[in-house]
Amino acid sequence: MKFNSDFKNIAENYLFAEVADRASKYAAAHPDQKVLKLGIGDVTLPIAPAVTAAMHGAVDEMARKETFRGYGPYEGYGFLRECIRSYYDEMDVELDADEIFVSDGAKSDLGNILDIFAKDNTILIPDPVYPVYVDTNIMAGRKIVFADANESNGFLPMPDYNVDADVIYICSPNNPTGAAYSVAQLEEWVKYALEKDAVILYDAAYESFITDKSAARSIYLVKGAKKCAIEICSLSKTAGFTGTRCGYTVIPHALARDGYSANNLWFRRQATKFNGVPYVIQRGAAAVFTPDGRKQIKQNLAVYQRNAAKIAGCMDELGIWYTGGKNSPYIWLKCPNGMGSWEFFDYLLNNAQVVGTPGAGFGKNGEGFFRLTAFGSEETTQEAVERIKKLLTV
Ligand code: PLP
Predict the structure, then answer these.
(1) In terms of DSSP H, where are the helices of 78-182?
(2) Chain-wide mean pLDDT for the chain?
(3) Distance, CA 199 to ligand 1 centroid (Å)?
(4) CA–CA separation, 327 vs 305, rounded Å?
(5) What's residue 14's pLDDT?
(6) Among the three residues 290, 311, 330, which one is the final residue of a domain in this structure?
(7) Residues 73 and 110 in one domain
(8) CATH code at 81?
(9) Structure pTM?
């Protein structure tokens, strides 16, 4: 027996552990000081009442013989797929319900989707980005090339035709940079993918934070994208489902090569390795798309959006370069005075007792940058912004 030696190639993911460790050591040494955390990527507001009511109702159904349900469809219940289909319809994206697969969240699908692609594909991943893309491909022993995101391209890299790729990751609005592609920019990526005969894995986990008309909420707003793109989305940040677990992946029928349909392959994969999302959770997820659910979720999103605007406004006042803040719960700022990511982390913690996330943890191009999140409470965010302003005003 041999273990998968590709695991040796994964960098030790110490980022959040190191952040927590430094913050708790500081707090222990300074018990009289209040440490404010703007580092977390997790939501803090509870699930909307319309959603929990639907889940309660579903629990009661499970308690009665007449309405009890056992195994559900691998691809998700029709009632939820239909809700998601009409959600896309409102965006002017026409899908068939059987192009939508309900999942237990975007992270699982981002890792599992690799099952349907050949081993010898070359993978193109932006740097910096959500580390799951890199790690899952290293585990699978695939060759990775990087698309450099940096200050000069506003952390939105565009295709380079000198680079050959088979599987292209796009995360928009991006974690950690908060930068979001426009439809016109995505058109360039779709053109590139079609020319290279490649597939785009489009992570839309933060689409519900988009407020600008110019930013794209789906890759399928681009003509031709159905032939080359899979869209992976989540209710985690949209509806506070980080602990409840529900998302969806769209695989259009038009995505086919050499007699293989991506939709069929994924169905086959899921039918083999996945037994579906719990009925109770899917009932809750369906309620996210009802008028009441939407209204309540919008109120929660508005809290995070106000926090993001507050942090972005602070950077504007301080003259600090940043991306995000709009269309995203993340603010990605350039560390002042040429400081490194960890240097700024310590500076902020020691002098303002504010915790953020060092950009270097998201890829080599993240060095010298720093992520603040809008997922804290309004009070914490306000206080943190005031402290940052006081510290960095010269
Ligand atoms: N994609 C991105 C870009 C994320 O930032 C996250 C979570 O932080 C996920 C996917 C994971 O989402 P889920 O909770 O649905 O697994």
Answers:
(1) 78-90, 106-112, 132-139
(2) 97
(3) 20
(4) 8
(5) 74
(6) 290
(7) yes
(8) 3.40.640.10
(9) 0.97
| Structural domain range at position 307 | 5-47+293-392
Query: Measured from the CA of 247, which atom of ligand 1 is nearest?
Result: 15
The pocket around ligand 1, CB under 6 angstroms, is made up of 41, 105-107, 130, 171, 175, 203, 205, 234, 236, 242, 247
Rounded to whole angstroms, the Cα distance separating 39 from 20 reads: 9
Q: Do 184 and 61 share a structural domain?
A: yes
Q: Whose CA is nearest to atom 3 of ligand 1?
A: 175
Instruction: State in Å: Cα 67 to ligand 1 middle.
Output: 33
The Cα-based distances of 64 to 52, 73, 177, 285, 384 in angstroms read: 19, 20, 48, 21, 50
Give the residue, by CA position, lying nearest to ligand 1 atom 5.
175
Query: Looking at the predicted structure, is the pLDDT value of residue 13 above 80?
Result: no
Q: Does residue 286 share a domain with residue 380?
A: no
Kindly state whether residues 271 and 385 are assigned to the same domain: no
Q: Give pLDDT tens digits for 145-157.
A: 999 999 999 999 9
Residue-level pLDDT at 12: 78
Question: What residues contact residue 394 under an 8 Å CB cut-off, 6+ apart?
Answer: none
Domain boundary among 249, 264, 290: 290
Q: How many domains does the chain have?
A: 2
Average pLDDT over residues 92-109: 98
Element (H, E) at 300: helix 291-318
CA of 116 to the centre of ligand 1 (A): 20
Give residue 15's pLDDT: 85
Q: Are residues 339 and 267 in the same domain?
A: no
pLDDT at 40: 79
Residue 340: both structure tokens together: 């490194």
Residues 278, 353: one domain? no
Atom of ligand 1 minimally distant from the CA of 234: 15
Whether 218 and 298 share a structural domain: no
